[in-house]
Specification:
Layout: E1 11-17, E2 30-37, E3 42-50, H1 57-72, E4 77-80, H2 85-93, E5 97-100, H3 109-116, E6 135-138, E7 141-145, H4 146-152, H5 158-168, E8 173-178, H6 183-191, E9 194-202, E10 205-212, H7 213-217
Parallel strand pairs: 1-4, 4-5, 7-8
Antiparallel strand pairs: 1-2, 2-3, 6-7, 8-10, 9-10
């Protein structure tokens, strides 16, 4: 049973939705909706239309980002079906935690709450001891299919499954099968000094290979 406690700091998650109320791409026109969890229930707290005009260039994009950040306020989590390019990097630079998920908000908001380690007055979340983990094929060399995982459990993001493993860096190489290169992997690889290679191995399938630079030079 959910305990209804009074809290001073409500939890908020922002997302971009299409007219059907489903998560859409940052590059598509839609509505920025900020959901707030005050006690036990998520509710849409505020909403604004949002669209980009690629022909207007970087200045217009930065103005749109400024308006978006002003609108979401203290909310530090943003969800889109996919995020890439200049808009994604501007939001990352502003300190937002970015998630790439599909579906309707009620299918993933609580999972994000757990992943972010936030508290909303609910009972403590159970540990994700059953999260999928990369399989060690040979000593130090791992592989995982995010694509297969998300078919079985659509609410799980690549960041939830892999970011801690990547940042711990306890591997020589890691191969990831996905339907696109998650932007956070590209950023983390650069920040951690890892070599990143991609190969389009089939229709809507990308093979990503992370290699620790020290391994390449040894």
């Amino acid at each position: 049973m959910c305990r209804k406690n009074h809290i001073e700091d409500p939890v908020e998650v922002a997302t971009i939705l299409n007219k059907s109320g489903e998560c859409t791409r940052l590059s598509d026109p839609g509505f920025i909706v900020v959901f707030r969890k005050m006690e036990c229930v998520w509710e849409a707290d505020r909403c604004m239309p949002f669209s980009l005009d690629a022909e207007k260039g970087l200045l217009d994009l930065r103005l749109k980002v400024r308006d978006l950040l002003s609108f979401i306020g203290n909310c530090r989590v943003f969800v889109a079906e996919s995020a890439s390019g200049a808009l994604f990097f501007e939001l990352e630079k502003a300190g937002l935690s970015m998630y790439e998920l599909s579906g309707k908000p009620d299918e993933f908001l609580d999972h994000i709450l757990k992943d972010e380690g936030m508290r909303s007055g609910s009972p403590p979340a159970q540990e994700d001891g059953d999260l999928p983990v990369p399989k060690e094929l040979t000593p130090g060399n791992y592989a995982i299919s995010i694509k297969d995982i998300q078919v079985a459990t659509p609410h799980l993001s690549s960041k939830q499954v892999l970011q801690r493993f990547v940042r711990d860096g306890n591997f020589a190489s890691l191969e990831i099968v996905c339907d696109h290169l998650p932007p956070w992997i590209e950023i983390d690889a650069e920040n951690l000094g890892m070599t990143l290679e991609t190969d389009c191995s089939g229709s809507c399938e990308v093979l990503v290979r992370l290699t620790k630079t020290s391994q390449m030079n040894s």
